[in-house]
Design brief:
Elements (H helix, E strand, L loop, with lengths): L1 H6 L6 H8 L3 H7 L3 H24 L5 H17 L13
Amino acid sequence: MYLFNTQGIFRTSLQDIMDTASLPKGAIYRRFKSKEEIALAALDKGGEIIWKHFYVAIENKENVIDKIIAIFLVYQDTVNNPPIANSWWVSFT
């Protein structure tokens, strides 16, 4: 996800991914059919991480107002302190 966040999805090459992950092309293509599939998997993982923050924030809240406040606080925190390095949203450039 770091590469996509810092370079953008379209500017990140498969070679960049191979170099960063220290994996040969074959190992990557056994798991993913394309760079776009890798990007989707990274976005899914990022979504899981962010949603987990929301679930943890509301799990002990007893009423709707406290849950809504907790959601807004998590959102504010993820914008100011992203749980995924270098990004709130992935750059598509």
